[in-house]
Write a structure and sequence with these properties.
Keywords: NADP. With about 350 residues, the chain is an alpha/beta fold. Strand 14, helix 8 and strand 15 form a beta-alpha-beta unit. The longest helix has 12 residues. The radius of gyration is 20 Å and the shape is globular.
């Protein structure tokens, strides 16, 4: 195929509100370096990292929920997930499904034509396990909110599936985040997992992947979305913030809390963990500042684990789950790429159950 020299792209020009995105129809198509591939983007999913980075929510100067982050000013030195600045302009968008259309000098041309999804963690090829040398696609390098993108060949994972590009673009971030959390908490069939925010992209992935491990799942979601969450496999679906969570749980014994919500309801959820229980967290969309009684932590022998940079095998395992039909996409809505601002507004307002995807 003939590769154009320019493309449509949504460019982030700095930290701030949605007006910081600039639609361009003349952006240069990138050229792959020796260890990279050029991908024609079929679809790109939205995720919290895109929103959080745009508004600078990761900065410790901001203490509120994601949807209110633009009311505060992030510090210049820690506005991103890694606690360091990024350069602008930047093309965000990590969750790409597309086709390899060109390769760098060190990559076999046999890869041209492969359908791929992304492993978003950019690791040092000489030091793969070093978290301090790890970046994120769409953050430390340009991502998929464009017609074409480049990335290291090792991060472009071949996938064979009858699912559409938009459906496959729901997996890279939400499902790898969820699987990383469950792996950190060592969830097994012996567990009962409590999942707040179960109607969101990561929450829905947690439901499916916990069930895949054989665990029992108790999900929390707004009542209008209970049917959608139940369809993902949750054993019990409760209101988003029950008046009395312990009473609502009845005889259920929660051994794992898998949380990306945080916020004011967080202490009541920690309180229902069984002795020896585990909390695994990878977000705080309702607010990062929470109250913790340290006596709860140590007297009940709880274990808390944060989960951001996932293990090497997580995304390749997801490919196997997808190809085997063990997990299904939770595609909520698709938007044209030029309507990214509207798509992100809907994402922040949680208008849809599941993942939102933009299509060039």
């Amino acid at each position: 195929m003939t590769i154009p020299t320019t493309m449509n792209a949504m460019i982030l020009t700095g930290h701030g509100d949605l007006e910081m995105y600039e639609w361009r129809t003349d952006w240069p198509v990138p050229t792959p370096a020796s260890d990279q591939v050029l991908v024609r983007v079929g679809a790109c999913g939205l995720n919290n990292t895109d929103v959080n980075t745009r508004v600078g929510w990761y900065s410790k100067a901001i203490s509120g929920a994601t949807d209110a982050a633009t009311d505060a000013t992030p510090d210049e030195d820690d506005p991103t997930w890694g606690g360091a600045p990024i350069t602008f302009p930047r093309i965000q968008g990590a969750d790409v499904c597309g086709e390899i259309v060109a390769v760098g000098a060190d990559i076999s041309p046999d890869r041209i034509g492969e359908r791929i999804i992304t492993d978003n963690w950019l690791r040092d090829p000489d030091d793969l396990l070093n978290m301090n040398k790890t970046g994120y696609f769409g953050s430390e390098m340009d991502g998929g909110y464009a017609e074409y993108t480049v990335l290291p060949a090792r991060n472009a994972l071949s996938v064979k599936s009858a699912l559409s590009d938009a459906e496959l673009a729901t997996f890279s971030c939400s499902y790898s985040t969820a699987e990383g959390m469950l792996e950190r908490a060592k969830v097994t069939a012996a567990d009962t997992v409590l999942i707040p925010g179960a109607s969101g992209g990561v929450g829905g992935a947690l439901v499916q992947l916990a069930k895949r491990r054989g665990a029992r799942v108790v999900a929390l979601a707004s009542e209008a979305k209970h049917g959608d969450v139940a369809a993902l496999g949750a054993d019990i679906v409760l209101p988003r913030a029950p008046d009395n969570i312990r009473k609502a749980l009845g005889d259920e014994k929660i051994t794992v809390l898998a949380d990306v919500v945080g916020g004011p309801n967080w202490p009541t959820l920690v309180d229902v963990l069984e002795r020896g229980g585990r909390l695994t967290t990878s977000g705080a969309i309702a607010g990062p500042m929470v109250d913790l009684d340290l006596r709860t932590l140590y007297l009940r022998d709880l274990t808390f684990t944060g989960s951001t940079i996932i293990d090497l095998e997580v995304t390749p395992n997801l490919i196997r789950y997808i190809e085997a039909g063990d997990i299904k996409p939770a595609l909520a809505a698709t938007y044209p790429l030029e309507e990214l601002r509207d798509a992100q507004a809907a994402f922040i307002e949680k208008k849809h159950t599941g993942n939102i995807v933009v299509v060039p």
